[in-house]
Amino acid sequence: MKLSKTYRAMLVSALVASSFSAAAATQLEVSSWKGGASEIANFPEIIKMFEEKYPDIEVKLTYISRPDTTTVMPARLQGGNPPDVMMVDREFMHMWAEEGQLMDLRGEPWVEKMQPALLPEMHHGEGLYMMMLELSGIGMFANMDLLAEAGLTEIPRNIDDLTKACVKLVDKGITPMLMPASSGWTPGLYTIAIGLAGDGLPDHSRPEKFNTGELNFAEDEAFIRAVTATKQMADAGCFDAKMNAGIDPWTVGIAGFQSGRAAMLPQGLWNIGPFLKDGLPENFSFGPLPALSGDKGIALDLLGPAWAIPKDSKQVDAAKKWINFWSDDEILNSFLVPESAVTTIIGGRSGVPENATSYVAAREEGYAVFTPEGLWHANVPIEAMNSMTSYMLDLSQDPVDILKRWDDVRDKENAAK
Amino acid sequence: MRGLDRRYWFVLPALAIYLVFMIYPLFSGVSLSFTTFSGVGEAKWTGLDNYQTIFTDSVYLKILSNTLIYSAFVVVFQNGIGLAIASMLNGLPKVRSLFRTALLVPSMVSLVIAGYVWQYLYSPLGGGLNEALAALGLKSVQQIWLGDPSIALIAVAAVHVWMYIGYSAAIFLAGYAGISSELQDAARMDGATRWKRFRFIEFPLLAPALTVNITLATINSLKSFEFPYIMTGGGPDGATMTLGLKVIKLLFNEYKFGLAAALSVVLIVMVASIGLVQNAYLRRREDRI
Amino acid sequence: MSSEGLQTQSSGEISVSKRTKTKNKQRWVDRFQVLFLSVLAILILLPIFYMISMSFRTRREIMMDPLGLPSSLLIENYQKVAEAMNYGTSIFNTIFITASVIVLVSILSSLAAYPLARIRHKLSTWLYILLTLGLVIPPFAGLTPLYLFMRDLGLLNSYLGLIIAYTTLNLPLGVFFYTSFMKSVPIELEEAARLDGASYLKTYWYVVLPLLRPITGTLGLFITLTVWNDIVYPLLFVTDDSKYTIMVAVVRFLGTYSIDPTQLFPAAVLASAPLLILFMLLQKQVVSGITAGAVK
What we know:
The complex is a heterotrimer.
Chain A: H1 2-23, E1 26-32, H2 43-53, E2 57-63, H3 66-78, E3 85-88, H4 90-98, E4 123-124, E5 127-128, E6 131-132, E7 135-143, H5 144-149, H6 159-171, H7 185-197, H8 206-212, H9 221-235, H10 241-244, H11 252-258, E8 264-268, H12 272-278, E9 284-287, E10 299-303, E11 306-308, H13 316-326, H14 329-339, H15 357-364, E12 368-370, H16 379-393, H17 399-416
Parallel strand pairs in A: 1-2, 1-3, 10-12
Antiparallel strand pairs in A: 3-11, 4-5, 6-11, 7-8, 7-9, 7-10
Helix pairs in contact in A: 7-9, 7-16, 9-17, 16-17
Chain B: H1 12-32, H2 49-56, H3 58-90, H4 93-104, H5 111-122, H6 128-135, H7 152-177, H8 181-189, H9 194-205, H10 207-222, H11 226-231, H12 243-252, H13 257-288
Helix pairs in contact in B: 1-13, 2-13, 3-7, 3-10, 4-7, 7-10, 8-9, 10-13, 12-13
Chain C: H1 2-10, H2 12-55, H3 59-64, H4 76-85, H5 87-118, H6 122-133, H7 143-152, H8 159-183, H9 188-195, H10 200-211, H11 213-229, H12 232-237, H13 246-251, H14 261-292
Helix pairs in contact in C: 2-14, 4-14, 5-6, 5-8, 5-11, 6-8, 8-11, 9-10, 11-14
């Protein structure tokens, strides 16, 4: 008796569940690594507005973190059962477009709204495969109160000024900066940024030349100086190189800067929001990274997440409406503000707070390079990071040998192709 | 010749599920190891290229030695300390289950969180461990735990031991429960010292528990990737890169599914052979005792 | 041995005082051991303490002094997080799936272990090796093929798919545990049952299975931890939020490039708490099973 009751209840609930999914109008499955609990990024509000505008479409957000996307999505793509719209970034886009898994979006109404400098980054070969939502970036955070103690009023813009500032800070008993290197992320990207930028306005053809092998890292004067800069910083007392090899950039490094244990930290723009919310450090600003020379510094742009449509999407029309909806400045801005990120559309409003104005100014004047992640083979930045940690552990190494490691990995990958 | 023992039928349900849902997908996975598969699309057949890469690139030699050191450390310390704890608890029935529960708590915590807390304990910027050493007047022993390539691997393995010590202790305790208490009492009556009782009565009788513990610890530590993944990402400069982590990195960061499959095969073969030899030895040892 | 015992008894006063002395000494040794174990346990639990302590603190406090104590108990962290996690549903799913997997694995693998432990024959050795080989297979080795297979069977987005996947994953462990355990159990009981005319199946059900209770507790614990802490299978096989397990809900609080401890930690504590409570409640059963089990 009892058993049959339970059984009936199960049957009924199963029926209800199946009829429920059948009754829904058009269900649009959107996969994303934004909009999760930790980076809500105004998603609930944006979805609500979208559903109000298109009452026959119901959005179903599937949150999958960026790392999990790597294993989950290939399986779904391969299985012909992908979400209708998926979040990608340049790395994923190149990989999956190459395999013919993504839909070519040329001719979509939003394309002409995108900033011309960014359009090439959304292409793979001839095709246009994604709509980039944001630009984030890596620059230098500074605790302005600590800088003021050493008589400094702004973030140094080049290595010379930085090392001089370090000497002043050390005199006051302040640790000038952290260069968290346990995974090599910070020194790796820093070196890539100033090495690619060189002197003066950055030449945007360089990243591709290093990719193809037309230029070699170990023979490039700017890159040799970029690696050497780490030693100059360490020699000037900017940081304890060996100790920083044991600091994780995401946890201990950030806490170290926020708690005032060090005056400066190269990190990402996305930290501004949390830092402001904590009120820690009380008085901080975010500027471009100190470059090899000049008085502008260099901003390292991270190409942000983007929307793409898998070729097996079951709701192509609704998917296109969804993407187009995001190209509205009003909507995009409401996403960019919680992200503290830079807009990708022409004349759009960014979500970057005021204490990052010097960073925004530098990139608007052209003193910015894109991270090569997604352009270079994935192993090259990884080797750059590892080799820079190795350099920090033993600064007596020849910078040319460090850079040869980058060249070797690139050559190996190119040969494999 | 008589027919097969009828009890063999009992293996069938488990075997069927196992073959269908584990071995079959595994073999499809293994076939990827002869290709340059990148997750989606066509897999280009490249024969033994992936294996050649693994056996000729010196990076993999370093990874192999890291894995073996890591595993040896975990097996010795997790089981050594677990056994010591279990043998003490065996004589303390009043507090036994309290301590057993307490020691199992770390294994119930999400690894991500454990890794996060350990970052701060190991931190060279006023981290818990270094501060504690300073308070004990042992400032000279302070280390950059996760940054010094010569100790980072051990520091990571220590967290592995921390997390699973309760497992080993629980299994040894289950073994102790199987030793007849008359035998232990008799030995005590004879005035055998604590050490002698352990060495000549308890330890031999714990042989099955030891087999289970050593086998599981060896297998789990050899294929472990979680701890270095969360605490160091394999750094500094590859000092904590293990075979399991390299498979993950090949998948997640380098998108080389084919090479990852090949490395998985190497890992499986290695762990299986070590496991088999070890298990055969331990079983024979059990029979001898 | 018994003759020696007699000797000790007959050797009069000296041995009695010696015995009280050893008893006293034993008491001190016990006390010292309890003290030592307590210190060790506190050290081992310290990181757990920090985890709970951090879950009550503001981000600002954590950044200022990561290992400090909470200034006040911030329940707010928990309220926000529990809601965002869809806590009740996720916990229910996890418990439902875990329980099903434990039942399936213990039946399937004990059934298989019975012949594997008892038959001394080449085939049984080979089957044992084949079945336990699964222990060494790293979790990612067959992921994509498994997904395609589940899709073809129509098992995606269902509890059944997850239950099958986890059952398969844990079968080798079950076979390994039961076989090695059963080898240490005397065969006499089974032989007696057989002599009474019981079929193999009846012998298994009435004699073998009850003997396996203690090790089933340990196996259940291992399985619970695997299912509870996994995120890959639910993320891959399930797209419906209402079918996710608890760890998937926790991982949502991990940012792409950042960690917010005020969300991650309460979420993690909430996820682990039922596990701990469950374990403490069942601990009595497991322990009494071990001591009462017919291991002797």
